[in-house]
Amino acid sequence: MLTLTKLDKQLIFPPADIALIEPNGLLAFGGDLSPERLLLAYSSGIFPWFSQDEPIMWWSPDPRGILPLEHFKCSKSLKKFARNCDYKITINNAFEQVIDICASIPRNDSGTWITADMINAYKNLHQLGHAHSVEVWNENILVGGLYGIIVGKVFCGESMFHKATNASKLAMLALVELLKSQKAEFIDCQMQNPHLATLGCIEIPRSKFLTQLAEQSQQTFEHGVWQPQTLNLKQWL
């Protein structure tokens, strides 16, 4: 019978392949949200997910949801919208705003899992250069965005939001095109859901994901890719 591992102060995780079948992927609990532990977790195919007043819980589900960049589904209407709209798309210009908004938007399926501790931990990772955001602006108003963690050339997506039609899809389109320009291969979506499936997210066995993650974690992006900047999305369309 598989048992759930309780983490202590040691920076170590059990192998992802011993995670529980039910609930799918629950691997361990406890520990902390230090940058060192979070980076070790993501590089091992593990991520934290828990609600307020719960212990920190660590997951590695099987199957795993990923978005192969070549599979991204950009509809004709979205491409036309991207070409014609006046929205500005930036990188790392408003990381704190993005994660704060993602935490405040009601979620039907996941509640308020972006807790205050999680927010502080990922803001810390951002300051250290490991967490990044894509923002969509209507003039000076932030209307959409997403954020995630980088492991080598893998973007581990955490959350996204929109306050205007197509805003989060524009953020995803910009991220996909940026990653493709850097010869990355996929985005880690953690778990597939109906919305992500419409964008091209698929499920693969955890073992295959871990192999691909290990390969891509040895790669690096070009210098300056994640510097705060405005993206010219139209150059890729």
> In CATH's first tier, which class of the largest domain applies?
Alpha Beta
Order of helix and strand elements from N to C terminus: EEHEEEHEHHEEEHEHEHE
Mind describing the biggest β-sheet? 8 strands, mixed
Fraction of helical residues: 25-40%
Number of domains: 2
How many whole angstroms does the radius of gyration measure?
17 Å
Low-confidence stretches: none
How many β-strand runs?
12
- Summarize model confidence as the mean pLDDT: 94
Strand-residue proportion: 25-35%
Envelope shape? globular
Secondary-structure-derived class = alpha+beta
Distance between the termini: 52 Å
CATH architecture of the largest domain: 3-Layer(aba) Sandwich
Strand order of the largest sheet: 11-5-10-9-8-7-6-12
Distinct helical segment count: 7
CATH superfamily of the largest domain: Leucyl/phenylalanyl-tRNA-protein transferase, C-terminal domain
**Topology-level CATH name of the largest domain:** Aminopeptidase
Subcellular location: Cytoplasm
GO molecular function: leucyl-tRNA--protein transferase activity
Keywords: Acyltransferase, Cytoplasm, Transferase
Family: Belongs to the L/F-transferase family.
Secondary structure layout:
Elements: E1 5-7, E2 26-30, H1 35-43, E3 47-48, E4 57-59, E5 64-68, H2 76-84, E6 88-91, H3 95-104, H4 116-127, E7 131-138, E8 141-151, E9 154-162, H5 167-181, E10 186-190, H6 194-199, E11 202-204, H7 206-216, E12 229-231
Parallel strand pairs: 1-2, 9-10
Antiparallel strand pairs: 2-4, 3-4, 5-10, 5-11, 6-7, 6-12, 7-8, 8-9
Helix pairs in contact: 3-4
InterPro entries: Acyl_CoA_acyltransferase (IPR016181), Leu/Phe-tRNA_Trfase (IPR004616), Leu/Phe-tRNA_Trfase_C (IPR042203), Leu/Phe-tRNA_Trfase_N (IPR042221)
Subcellular location: Cytoplasm
Family: Belongs to the L/F-transferase family.
